[in-house]
Structure prediction request, 188 residues.
Amino acid sequence: MIRPSPTTPFGRFEKAWPAADRSDLLAAPVAAALRQWDDAAAAASVLVVDTDPEVADTADFSAAYDVPLDVSANCVVIAAKRGQDVTYAACVALATTRIDVNSTVRKRLGARKASFAPMDTAVAHTGMEYGGITPVGLPEGWPLLVDAAVAAAPYVLIGSGLRRSKLILPGALLARLPHAEVVTALAG
Prediction:
């Protein structure tokens, strides 16, 4: 069934689609996660836009597509270490802020040390492209820390798992993802 092209709440995009209708614009784990959502209305509210992968990084993307930085959210993969054990988690914060990895994240994850995971590790574990990693479709069991400002945003733009496209969805949906925890002052 072909649906009419939805409009986006911000930005300047040629076209937008319900993400569930365009799995070709999503990394495999993201498409699978959207298919598994049991809330059809929530899944239908997730849009995908096809974009230029050469401007996928936040500042360049914002300028190219007129997307305010305060609605752009970044998802980063964290490596949390305690002794010889390394666990992974993801954090989501607005592009206008910085995630407090050394204090807030480290303590939330019960780690002695927390740092951004190396690019090749993040890509290998998520099955997503660097520059497109998103909280939708993270590996089973990974903690997901969502900054309260992201969860409160009417809509945010995040990665799709691929550099060539982005998702637009209500911030509150990120707080409903598996293993998500909304954290006040995760970023500042």
Q: What stands out?
A: The two ends are 43 Å apart (CA to CA).
